[in-house]
Design a protein that fits this description.
Blueprint (H helix, E strand, L loop, with lengths): L1 H68 L2 H8 L4 H10 L10 E6 L2 E6 L3 H8 L4 E7 L2 E11 L6 E9 L2 H7 L4 E7 L4 E6 L1 H7 L10 E3 L6 E8 L2 E7 L8 H28 L7 E2 L5 E2 L34 H5 L7 E3 L2 E9 L3 E9 L5 E9 L7 H16 L8 E7 L2 E7 L3 E3 H12 L5 H19 L21 E4 L4 E3 L28 H4 L6 H17 L9 H10 L3 H8 L5 H8 L11 H9 L6 H12 L7
Antiparallel strand pairs: 1-2, 1-5, 3-4, 4-5, 6-7, 6-10, 8-9, 9-10, 11-12, 13-14, 14-15, 15-16, 16-18, 17-18, 19-20, 20-21
Helix pairs in contact: 1-7, 6-18, 11-13, 11-17, 13-16
Length: 643
Amino acid sequence: MSDKKGSWGVSAALMLLGVAGIGVGLTITQQRAAQGRAARDHAAEIAQTLATRVAGQRADVAAQLDKASAIPELRAALDNRVDARTFDDLFQTEEWWEDFRSHAVAVVRGDKIVVARGIDPAAVNKAMERVPSAQAVDSAGQILAVAAGTYRLRKSGDDFTVVLGRRVDDATLASLRGPSSVAVALSDGKRIRASAGDAAGAAAAAQLVGSEAAGTFVDPSGEWAGAAVAFGDGLWVVGMGEKAARPLPEPAGWGSAGLGALLVLAGAIPLVRRRRSRPAPSPSVTTGGGMPAPMPAFHAPVSRVVALNPPPGRAPTSAADIPRSRGSAAATALAAESTQQFGRYTLLKRIGEGGMAEVFTAILSGAEGFERLVVIKRLRPHLALNPDAVAQFIDEAKLGSVLTHSNIVTVSDFGKVGDGYFLAAEYVSGHTLAAISARHAEKFGRPLPAAFVFYMAHEVLAALGYAHERTDPSGRPLGIIHRDVSPTNVMVNFEGEVKLLDFGIVKATERVSRTREGNVKGNVGYMSPEQARGGDVSNRSDLFSLGLVVFDLLTGESFYRGSGSGEILYQAATGPTAEHLARINALPQPGPEVLRNVLSIDPAGRYPSARAFAQAIGQSMTVAKSQLAELMRILFRDRPSTD
């Protein structure tokens, strides 16, 4: 009898847990739906506020235009047909123009621009396409809120048009923020031109670039809501809403409901089986007292719940978590599956391997509980007797130790444990450009915003410029060329810092090893033509490689396409073709201009230095380190581990 009750109890418990799981799953789904509706309502509210405030900006500029155009002295100058130089002098010195001194202004008579001050002719013509009108225009890289109107002179009866503009600066953008938004940005459909407010919100606004015409936007993660309102032809004001509490992911709701259904089924099956296995009633046996005698009880087997083995424990994160190995053999062993003592270091996890070396995360332990997380790169044991491999490994360690720059991963230690050479390098908690690009495409369905790409390239150029110009203590150039700039050799940490790594095949004046003439080393997909041919390389070869990285990030595609490394190497040795140039020309500015230069087949046609390359893209950087850090958190909040 007790077995029967126990069986019923287990089944009932499973079914109750299942019903609870279904309830939790439905609740999560309903909460997500409610949060989705709230986010869409929030986006609509932001759109309405932005539209109202943008209209207010236009009306304000239009009112100023009417006021300026009615100034008697201005009309008198037009009646007297003064020239452009006189007009310019009047605008600079006369008291009647004092209120508009900081404004851009143009005066047009017929189809001729009489004077243009602070606004280029192309922007004037753009503003005059709609008269009367008030909108935003791009004037030589500066965004102006302009109004244009046509008026008549009383004396001569001639018509004249005035275009009056006011710079859209951070203060202007801040005035467009409503109570429902934390940040506003100005977009030209290709990149963010300016922003104001919360840095995280501004970074999230960059995700709308290219999709402004949709009007409203809700981040797939459910954390951000935003809207874009047209401010002129090809110009939008983007507003981002307050960061909401992150809802539980949708799979959690369906998973909970599905698990609940399985538990209900698991509890019901034994009951159904017991019911089917119950024998049919037998005729009663009457006792002498006339009462039916009880039949023997038939008990169904009791279901037993078997506990599954628990999942493996967490990976150790400090030396205190790690069992110490003993013996000289263990001191040089490197196992990927378990922690091992390696000299002064305790290896935690294998994070990479190649033909020459294995790479591990490790803990450096010292006195009084001192610990530091580092990366250990160990030359493979079978190469310890190869003089060329050892010499190249020594070169990497030596150069890594002398290159001390915030954008370069530094080498802190070099030595031997047993017969194995190793180096210890800075640990970067982040992801490679390759992983960042792939994750952005996965999450948002498009390549990285151009502003972020140019910012990261600018930081890599700071590292390359430092390495290229590095000298020895006597001032003699070291002649350092990286030769392996690629998306997998640049990392971004969660503070938004960009780090260049792996100087393993670097070219330098003081090298122990020497690359044989014609021997090609590096990632073939990012080689300059001269490097792919096995020729001599200069600092401009690294710039070419970075140009290919920029193209890769802007498009989400590889520059060279082939079925194997041999075919790609042939394309790299040939250099960009007409087809490649057509793909470059389709990029947002300043991509085409920059890449046509840096991807010149002839090294002499490229930027002469990393500094010159950095200056060329400097104006395109409209994001800061804090915004890149926020983008990293948006992309990898559920994938914090380093590549």
